[in-house]
Amino acid sequence: MEPTRELLARKRDLSWYGPTKKEDRLTAFGFRLIGGGAHQSKTLMHAEIGELLRAGVTEETDFRSRVLDENILGKATLSGRESVLRNLSSLYGLSTVPLLTRVFLRFAKNDSEGRQLLALLIALSRDPLLRDSAQTVADTAVGMPVQWPSFAARFDALHPGRFSEKMVRSLSQNCASTWTQTGHLEGKKKQRRKVHPSAAAAALAALIATVSGFSGPAILSSGWFRILDLNPDTAMDALRSAEAHGFARVRAAGDVIEISVKQQLATTLGIPELEHV
Known about the structure:
InterPro entries: BrxA_sf. The protein is mainly alpha-helical.
């Protein structure tokens, strides 16, 4: 039996960066390209970012005041409030509020059902270690388990000697929890399941892929779409849905595919700076 197109796609390495990648462009947009990240001590913190959004925060919010002084996340101690602010800022860019964070906040405010995948995309952009864990998820067939030792094996292979046994276990368990929060894994056995991104998530993936150096049909096969369980055909369908919401412009003629999101999102989200990112 020939392997399916979807299975073959899973066997390829996830590609986060395209041929025209520019590091200064990425970091200005809100990426963190190297180093550790929040998953060394925390998870996606989907509940906490959801609480902030329900509290009506915007990119103009003084996050430090709201979290530390007003304690809108209900933490019992000052150290607890400081810890949650530090990790949320690391994951979601709340301290500097770059363009990536502004786009996320505007999308997530109106897309509560798709928020976990929007959160995943920004967390992948800002946590290099979470990016390292993604291949393990992408390579696992639906219905098969992904336990934390699988993540640990990948971290040990990518970063030999970097982490202690205790740290790599904690990091791997945190990543397993995050992939459960996003819907990629479920149950005690952490079985792989297929996720279904919203139109907003597809548009954000296309924006991130564009800033990461992809263009045309290469956007559709980038890691940003594959980690949403979309192959080039289903990614195109998702972007057509995004187009119906005013988030994208898609044109296809034969083998030529044009995908545009910067101008559309600049207008729809009211962030004119996106046109020049």
